[in-house]
Amino acid sequence: MEANVIKKLLVFGTMNIAAFMFSQSTTTDSTSVKDKMIDEVVITGNSNPKASIKTSTSISTLKPADIINAAPRTTAEIFRTIPGIRAESSGGEGNSNITVRGVPVSAGGSRYLLIQEDGLPVMQFGDIAFGTQDQFTRFDSFVSRIEALRGGSASVFASNSPAGIINFITKTGEKQGGSITQQVGLNYKNFRTDVDYGTPLGNNYFIGVGGFYRGGDGPRKTGYISNNGGQFRLSLLKKFEKGSIRIYGKYLDDRTAAYMPMPIAVSGSDSNPDYSSLSNYNILTGALQSSNFRNDLTIGGNGQVLKSDIRDGMHSVSKTVGLEFNYDLGSGWKLEEKARYAANDGQFLAPFPASVGSKAEILESIAGYGSAVYAGTNTAVDSNAKYMKTVLFNTQLNNLNNFFSDLNISKKWDKVKLNAGVYNSSQNINLSWNWNTYLMEVSDNNARLVDVISPTGTKITDNGLLHYGVPDWGGVNRNYDTKYSVIAPHAQVEINVVKNLTLDLGARYDFGKVSGSFSGTQNTMRTIDVNQNGTIETPEQSVAVVDGTVPVNYRYGIFGYSFGANYTINSHNAFFARVSKGGSASADRILFAGYNYTNNDDPALDAVKVNKVNQIEGGYKLRSANCFLNTTLFYAKTIEANYEATTQIRTENRYQSMGVEFDGFYKINKYFDIKAGLTYTHAEIKDAIDKTIVGNTPRRTPKFMYSINPNVNIDKLSLGFFVVGSTKAYTQDVNKLVMPGYALVNPYIAYRLLKNLTLNVNANNIFNSLAITEAEEGSMVGTNGIIRARTLPGRTFAASVKFDF
Q1: What is the Cα–Cα distance from 253 to 232, expressed in whole angstroms?
Q2: Using one digit for the tens of pLDDT, what is the confidence trace for 661-673?
Q3: Pick from 778, 795, 796: which is nearest to 787 by CA?
Q4: What is the CA radius of gyration of the chain?
Q5: Backbone phi, psi, residue 739, to 5°
Q6: pLDDT tens digits, residue range 681-714?
Q7: Residue range 361-376: average pLDDT?
Q8: What are phi and psi of 599, to 5 degrees?
Q9: Which of 168, 243, 258, 703 could bridge across to 314 with cysteines, CB 3.0–4.6 Å?
């Protein structure tokens, strides 16, 4: 196996040597540095802004026009066009799984990659259960560009981000003017308005405002308006002789549907499965949400009765204020400070199918079963239909507040640049899991809840509610109340050894402290009149109440370093290499796993506090007036621990991945250009608690990921398409059941009606391709021909009109 991998990498290396030789034959050293070249000045993961060809990092820049043409329906879908980044954006506007270059997704979220806004994290941890960072991140027209750094220097420029950084850089108001964009779904209900405006105020003051508001159903049929909310941003900048100061804010209040794995039929074999929609459920357009399933009543985290409107879905609220300050101290010294406070809260409500099957398999398996009717009626259920035992993920995001500060001082000499700083942060994780179990039919057209009745006529369920809690999973109603604090000194030095050779070395150490408690290690069963109607229904005879509190008080340390070299042969060609080490601290994911969370000397706890990543990368960069090419060979080793709620499985695994990444653009003439990205990854589990999976490919890791974007520009007309695809992968680490490869085609056409008025029509997944991103089952063996999987949505069309002023 390794020999084959090495052969493939040698082939890719030969291709790049050929590209280099070709560039030498077409571009000479006598080319003026003033010649126009396709390159970007980047700031993410670098101590000083510089052209990307002069950095020893892999970094891509996305501009708003490219993002709009890619037709993303959620923020996470934007990342699919970035080489090396695997964005499983099937969960809706949040709760997406994101990773880089074969680094594993062992649970939800993005443990090894941070999303930033203006150089500071959105959340300190990317994989907080039901509070992932993309839930609090929205792209709008106030974003000037997105920079995506893979691997490299991320280990020393941010905490908990060894695999990469995606940085949303917002407008400051320095550029006069603005825009209004009205978007509408053509075959689904979506109405969204984006606005941004910037202007100088005089005396070197600048103001920028922007944001969006939207409403609609989203790309799947939920039976109600599931997307409803928006975001407002404000920036005030003051420039003075030796620096500037900027104050900015964001207010986000957005409700969107959260999509969990859904039932899908499967036949054939594990290695050659045939997936199809169930007769009453279209996997591309259906949703588990229903207008008949709108209210939930449960016992909250403090023992109170909690009433929830399931239509709120993923409700994300963020109130943010930030500060940026930089000052030229003279003699080559500069001071820079970034700080931001965010008050984050909300709720996460999503139905999850714990089991799916026939009437006999689901309904008749309920203890005391006599008959079944649709809730609220006396109508007997359809004996030929499919049914679900559904767990409602009802999680209160009580307090996810955070504060980040990064103070840096830099000094520039003739051939040396030094940057040193201190990062300080605090992140609250205060959540309450208040889950119930329901019975409902499988249908994509407002599924009905089901009541089960005993032979004596006693209702075993209450309007579809089977249990207050989730006894099938051992309870899992929980409270988290923890705080994670980090102080991280860091330093980077850049040396121009000779004219064309630049070396950079950086180091960072995170001093982490965790305090607080969590409860729910036991779910005590009590008799409570939850609906307060004066009668104890059958589910109220056994109500799960959170019990068993565990204190948390431990410390951790993460040492990270990064050493890179960049050699520019001329203004068009460069080679680079980098060795780095970093880590990501385990947050709430290791709680409830049975460790001693107050003993810093416990080797078992010490082994899971920090997830470690070691990386080596190197490559070649080509720039010219009509093309660019970035090629990166990469190697990564990952050591991590995790605990998954839905499976109750604790893991401690070691992974290895290697491969090659291409990122290119070629402008053939003034009418036609093409962008493309390709990533090949060979990943392997090197060690695990479960020795039977050692040597296997980590779940959901494809060999190839790719994106292609041909684009035509003729006068006022622009048209093209994006192809985003992936080869097959395994659903789970056991490497049995295969998820087929897929290619999504997203065409677009834009026409400039007037100088400042543009019409755009685009489609997402125009051919209705089935794209499975994850599945709960690891094999068809032992199933009833139905598994639970998340897929990307089917075909959607949208149009927008943009007015620039």
Answers
A1: 9
A2: 999 999 999 999 9
A3: 778
A4: 27
A5: -95, 120
A6: 999 999 999 999 999 999 999 999 999 999 999 9
A7: 96
A8: -115, 100
A9: 258
Query: What residue numbers bound the domain in which 313 lies?
Result: 1-17+31-804
CB-based burial, 435-465: b 16+ in 10 Å, e otherwise: bbbbbbbbbbeebbbbbbbeeeeeebbbbbb
pLDDT digits (tens, 9 = 90+) for 179-221: 999 999 999 999 999 999 999 999 999 999 999 999 999 899 9
- 32 burial (CB, 10 Å; 0-12 / 13-18 / 19+) is exposed
Mean pLDDT of the chain: 91
Provide the strand spans (E) within 241-270: 243-256, 262-268
12 has pLDDT over 80 = no
Q: Is the CB of residue 224 less than 8 Å from the CB of residue 311?
A: yes
pLDDT digits (tens, 9 = 90+) for 412-467: 999 999 999 999 999 999 999 999 999 999 999 999 999 999 999 999 999 999 99
- Domain harbouring 750, CATH code: 2.40.170.20
d(CA 16, CA 448): 58
Give the span between the Cα atoms of 527 and 537, in whole angstroms: 10
Q: How many CA atoms lie within 13 A of 631 on its CB side?
A: 20
User: Which residue matches tokens 């099938």?
Assistant: 472
Taking 3-state DSSP, the helix, strand and coil percentages for the chain, each rounded to the nearest 5, stand at: 10, 55, 35
Domain presence at residue 733: yes
Domain membership flag for residue 22: no
Neighbouring CB atoms inside 10 A of 201's CB total 12
Residue 759 maps to a domain: yes
The gap from C-alpha 422 to its chain's centroid, in whole angstroms, comes to 27
How many domains does the chain contain in total?
1
